[in-house]
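tmp note - ABC transporter substrate-binding protein
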Amino acid sequence: MKYLFAPAVALIAASTFAAPAAAQSITVAVAADIRSNNPGVNRDDNTDDFALQLVEGLVGYNEGGVATPLLAEKVDLSADGKTYTFTLRQGVKFHNGAELSSADVLWSWNRYMDPKTDWRCTSEFDGRSGLKVESVTAPDARTVVMQIDKPNALFLDTLARTDCAMTAILHKDSVKADGSWDKPIGTGPYKFGEWKRGEYFTMTAFEGYKSPSGGQRDGYVGSKRPLLKEVKFLIVKDPATVKAGLISGALDLSEILPSDAAELKKNPKLSVVAEPNAVRHVFLIQTRDAVMGNQKLRQAIAASLDMDEIVAAFYNDLGKPNTSPIYSGSSYFGEAEKKGHVFDAARAKTLLKEAGYKGEKIVILANKRPVVPSFPAAVVAQQMLQSVGVNAEIDVLDWATQLDRFNKGNYQMQSFSFSARFDPAIAFEQFSGPKDKQPRKTWDNPEAQKLIDKLYVTSDRAERQKLVDDLHKRVIDEVPMIFAFNGLDIVAHAKRVQGFKPWQSKLRMWEVTLAN
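out:
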């Protein structure tokens, strides 16, 4: 059998968490209430963030966005690429004290596959989305075998997806005697606490938690000790109220707007941290447009954009450009992906002449939602385009209208954002495909699509990197869109909060302490 993950990589060595003598509590502001406490059911990103502190799956994402063993100690893959054998870690316990076994994996899986559960990701595994799990068996208490219908390099990635709640393994006592949902009894570092709808929700440290070791956090799979006694998530929708609460000390931690970062940085009692995530801010280009179909014109537009200035328009000095479809924190972001569009106004003017551009109007669609850089980025881009001789205008739309125009492919350019995608195959698929069938697709290149299809079934890491590098170079050359920069998670917290680091828009509260 092919050995997917070595025990060292899987962080097998583990130590049971022992609560510190002076365990403490923390208050975190969040902009919205959770939708449910049922992992992967009736969910959104905010709900996922909370759930993934309480539950865990066989695999989870590491810092580089790669699915890595979590409740599994190791994962073996058969030579034909269709049979995955998971060996469970020993000594892992649920919040009710029961020890994890393969029977719990089977119970959880069967519940997810039951249509009555209404799990977010049932269709990802039953064949409707191209991947079908044909059987799940448990030869012994520590072994789970999953058989899929055909090789799929994204099987583990799909199991690990946060919108699937990491395909969390739950204890059967999570449901009531009649089969209805009660509360999550998982294996995560924190236990479900109290939920007062519209006001707050809490979680408490699971003192029986057995953390994967390795010395440091690593996405969802590294050291995850619950060092806080309780975390209270207080629902505060108004950014001004959040800022006031941080300054007064009523709040210990919160995500903040980029526009508030500079002021809060000056506060001696606060720290501001910013980390890039997998969201990608882009300028979409409609290659079927009579004007924008000219590749040299698109190359000229890319050369005219000073990405440092565009990033600064929204993130000030906190962000950095990234012109690759692969986000900067990905393990696939290598030397090839670092080479992208280069600002060169003189070259842009030369390319415009070669393109035969005669001053035709180019309209950039944008919206003014405060949480995205659509409008500020469009304003700076317009100025740069005009400076090299492009007749650029901005049309500000409400978000619903802009999204409708995107879905119909009805635009010349858009200042837009793509949501996070970890695996490169999914990242490219997000914007690639035949426009005749899917008008929202931006890159309609049959040769590139063949490479993406190959990326979906190729498991060899080196081969996948070659495919990613090739696709990146093609995007830079063809310019079906212009990637500008990744999103940023910007968080302010009291300086006494130690060990916190934002990651992929998730407020991970493990390995966090509160100094006296």
